[in-house]
Design brief:
The complex is a heterodimer of chains A (194) and B (170).
Chain A lengths: L2 H12 L3 E4 L3 H10 L4 E3 L7 H11 L5 E6 H6 L2 H9 L4 E7 L2 E2 L5 E2 L8 H8 L3 E5 L2 H14 L3 E6 L14 H21 L1
Parallel strand pairs in A: 1-2, 1-3, 3-4, 4-8, 7-8
Antiparallel strand pairs in A: 5-6
Chain B lengths: L4 H13 L4 E4 L6 H9 L4 E4 L3 H13 L4 E6 H6 L1 H9 L6 E5 L12 H13 L4 E4 L5 H15 L3 E5 L1 H4 L3
Parallel strand pairs in B: 1-2, 1-3, 3-4, 4-6, 5-6
Helix pairs in contact in B: 1-2, 1-7, 3-5
Classes of the chains: A alpha/beta (194), B alpha/beta (170).
């Protein structure tokens, strides 16, 4: 599966929701599908997108939060799985695109290329629902199911190590930060009116 | 254990007065009472971390979601979190409020704490992080409030170093 196709398939589920992504191909491909103020692209601090997602999920328990992680990033912060599992916020969905590669820095293989099983680690860490998806349709169904379940879920989606031609995004990172914060404020106000 | 319950309570109450709702922590001796107080408080979300780095992400997320948070860590935990402090908190202008137990400073008997003690303040200065020392109980309320105020006004991390004089009774 190509990550770009996978993102396109789940875009309708992402569109209205709080989304935090890692940097690199994931950010660029989601941005190209259509940037929204409820999307935050963590352009550094590898490994911490899931920790940010956990912070948002705990601070806004009424709103679903979707983290889009990668194998290289998750391997840098495996403790995040045990911390998320400890608090199990039902409004947090953790999607991991596993291309077995550090693609944006030259394509060096990560440990998932030599047998490390992220779904197994997530299960053993205590994540209550762990799914694996290998086609865009399958991923979309898994995302829909996870959001309906209101249960902390990690989805490991194996993708090919192919990225966009350019990683350029016409969005300064501070602009993204401030518009995202404003958007979350508005979502909270709207949520409290409903 | 001669960790000061009285001063831990004053620090905890000062954080509550700052409307802190999420506290992330990794246990260390001086912080035991503070962590217990957070755990027993139904209005506080205590996040027990695997590593301090995660706390920087959690506080960044909480801030963007409009909720005040604080980090409780040992200075060695601060040292473990330098990259996210630089490439998340400083890069993205996140107002972290870091309460750091200042091990390895004057009076330290544990040899293994001493290198971290020597490195803590030079590294805080190198990162240009404003720092308060908490040494007397009379300063706690005002200094924590002022630290949070500066963090929010400057959109920049601040550090509050918890001293042996305040935390340890022997």
């Amino acid at each position: 599966m190509l990550r770009a196709d996978a993102l396109e398939a789940i875009y309708p589920e992402l569109e209205q929701r709080i989304v935090v992504t890692i940097m690199g191909a994931v950010a660029a491909e989601l941005y190209m599908l259509g940037h929204r103020h409820n999307f935050f692209y963590l352009e550094h601090a590898m490994g911490l997108a899931s920790s940010m997602g956990l912070g948002i999920a705990l601070a806004m328990p009424q709103h679903p939060v979707i983290v889009i992680d990668g194998d290289g990033s998750l391997l840098m912060n495996l403790g995040t799985l045990s911390t998320m599992a400890r608090y199990k916020p039902g409004n947090l969905l953790h999607i991991v695109f596993d291309n077995e590669s550090l693609l944006s820095v030259g394509g060096f293989p990560t440990a998932t290329a030599t047998g490390t099983d992220l779904a197994g680690i997530a299960r053993a860490s205590g994540i209550p629902s762990v799914m694996e998806a290998n086609t865009p349709e399958n991923l979309k169904a898994s995302v829909t199911k996870a959001l309906e379940s209101k249960t902390l879920t990690t989805i490991i989606a194996k993708v090919e190590a192919i990225g966009p031609k350019s990683f350029h995004m016409d969005l300064p990172l501070l602009e993204n930060r401030f518009q995202f914060k404003r958007c979350l404020e508005a979502m909270k106000v709207q949520g409290s009116r409903e | 254990m001669p960790v000061s319950v009285t001063n831990s309570r004053l620090i905890y109450d000062a954080l509550k007065a700052c409307d802190v709702k999420i506290m992330s922590a990794l246990p260390e001796t001086w912080l035991v009472h503070l962590i217990r107080m957070a755990d027993e408080d139904p209005d506080m979300t205590l996040v027990r971390l695997a590593k301090e780095e995660e706390g920087i992400g959690i506080s960044a997320g909480a801030h963007l979601a409009g909720v005040n948070s604080a980090l409780l860590m040992q200075n060695h935990g601060f040292l473990a979190a330098i990259n996210p402090i630089v490439s998340l908190a400083l890069l993205y202008k996140i107002p972290l409020v870091m309460l750091i137990s200042y091990r390895g400073h004057m009076g330290e008997k544990d040899p293994w704490q001493t290198q971290g003690g020597l490195a803590t303040e030079p590294i805080l200065r190198a990162l240009n992080i404003p720092t308060w020392h908490l040494t007397s109980s009379g300063d706690i309320y005002r200094r924590l409030k002022d630290a949070q105020t500066l963090a929010h006004a400057s959109l920049h991390p601040v550090a509050v170093l918890l001293s042996r004089e305040l935390m340890w009774e022997d």
